[in-house]
Amino acid sequence: MRDRSTELPPECWELIFNFLDHHRHFESLSLVSTQFLSITNHLRRSLIISSQTSPFLPNLFQRFPNLKGIEIREFDGDLNFLLHQISNSGLDLESLTLSSQDHFPLMGLRELGLRMRNLRKLSCSEMNCLQDTHLFEIGNSFPLLEDLNISFPQYNSRFDPIGSLDLQRFSGIVTDEGIIHLSMKLKSLLKIDLSGNQFISDKSLQFLSENCLLLREIVIRECDFITQNGIGSVMRRCINLNYISVDGIGIPSIELYFQESFVFAKNLSEVNLSHSFISDELLSSIADACLPLKKLTICHCYDFTFVGVSYLLYKYQFLEYLDLEGANFLTDESMIDLCEFLRKLTFINLSLCSKLTSLTFFMLVSNCSLLKDVKMERTNLGVEEFLVDFGINPCVMSLNLARNESLSDECIKKIAFCCPNLQELKISHCPTITEEGIREVLRSCGEIRHLEMNHCSGIKCLDIDFELPKLEVVQAEGPVLDDEALMMIAKRCHGLLQLDLEGCLNVTIKGVNGVVQSCMRLREINLKWCDNVKVDIIPRMVFSRPSLRKIIPPCRFIPTDKQNKFFLRHGCLVCKG
Hints:
Radius of gyration: 26 Å
Number of helices: 21
CATH superfamily of the domain at 323-450: Ribonuclease Inhibitor
Mean pLDDT: 91
CATH architecture of the domain at 323-450: Alpha-Beta Horseshoe
Number of strands: 21
Shape: globular
């Protein structure tokens, strides 16, 4: 007889399951028992709705009663009716994403506002034909909003073939009037993204800074009529501001008012000035402002030098995040000097710094003991050969070293030795890396979960004689892998979740079938442009591997409505090839 005293109450299981980093892990747990099924259903907090999943919404809402966030993606049905269903679902949503929709669902959002009074986050980015009347409705319907994204509205349909405004189809845009209304209604607003709204001006920023006293984060990119003085006024008036992202600074020149505004932003911890003409004087002003700065992004910026960035980093030696992409003046020698100021760094991006070699990478890994994430795309990584031994950094988790044409097997082996706990590696478009280098990386880095090696022409096979139980994602687009390599993956990577084989011309039904049969947790597979894979394998894949949730088939395969229903009944979305 079973000792029932050893059973844990549901509350304890909930605490345990909450340690899982993604709800995808709930699926296998739900198969253990009806108790686990009930617990995981109640723990689910987010849901993505597409055209394919919309017919099942009543059942999904009933199954997951505690959903807090919904994202509507790739939906081509009646958006107002969909929001009506959500409004009457009994859910208490806090977050809704409506990005990239072809129209604004005015009636649906109005109804949702009557039911979902606790909605805190709304994203309407890349919405077609967004205009002031829509912002009026947002302000009236969701007065408790804290996070609003109305970036990059799409107005392409309002321009004629030669690019002039078509007045006959022109019905409205987002102007200062809409933003002013939002500022007066959304008193709890903490974050707003105004990027791409090209007809708003400094007046919008004035009212936001006067009415939204709690504002902490503002993003203003590609807003042609917003000036440096307008941005400076936000920094002076919003005493709670801790994040600002702008571009185009310094065109035609840096305004003194803007430069001197940083000293007023006492809580500013994140600054993004990408794609701007910044000067050493501006960097010095930021340095002397004595901000609690943790993150700095000045990628693809111009007119500053090593002197300016060195002084700033000297002042902010507690910086955790640094993005210097495209700073072509940086050399290995200058980076050795800067390393002295980067002891607290956890992320750095040095992509497109073409003068940097392997010496910079190993210096960073050795001197920045907290470093977790390094991006060095399109550098000279692999050029510098040296015999100096560098230290091991167990904190490094992610490396993006793509498009380094000189990155060799020997160099990647040293990198793997220095980063034994690596979990993510991206080395796409590195033609001199071969299967020997990949094999040693996988041998040295037993924690690796994500491997990208797209279009690595030097890799022909994968001769691996050890298990890779933690490898979950493999991306190998282009003529990289063949059936033999896929059989090796099937044999060694039983925990594989996602496999991207787009354009693998040497792959056939034999290799794909081997992976599908052996990788019992496989959720996604991309076979686009795999011309030697016969399309009749698709139904067998769905039927034989219950874990599959998404298949991108070869381009010749277009599922019928009957096939789509069959696939969806098995929980798998099969896209058009």
